[in-house]
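Sat 14:20. Reprocessing the chain from the morning session after the first attempt stalled halfway. Input below, unchanged.
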Amino acid sequence: MERRTERMRERGVSATVLVCTNERTEYAACAAVDGVDVANAVRDWLRERDRYWSEVAVAETSCLGMCSEGGVAVVVHPHDEWFAEVTVDDVPTLMTELFGAATGDTTAAEPTTTG
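Finished this time. C-alpha cells:
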C-alpha cells in the first residue's frame, strides 16, 4: 500500500467530487438517470477552467445511498456537501456555488468541518 496524500496535495488537489453511476436491475438508480452524463458534465466544467485534476478530482462511484428517479447523487469532499436529484443542467450552478466561477475565485463556499 502506498499513501499518496502528500503527492495529491503537492499537485494542488484539494477537493473530490463523487458522482454516483450505480446500475441496479430491481429499481431505478443513478445510471438510469444519466449518472455518467452528470459525471462528464462535472469534468467538462472543470476542464474548461483548467481545474480538473489540478484542483478538483472527479470519481464515478457506486451507490451513495440517495437513490432517486429524478437525478443523480453527488457528494463533494472536503466540503461535506451531499446532493440528490442532480441533472446535467444543474452542474454549472452547483460547481460555481462550490468552486467559484474561475480559478482563484474566492466566492466559492468554504469547506465545512465536522467536530
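The two ends are 29 Å apart (CA to CA).
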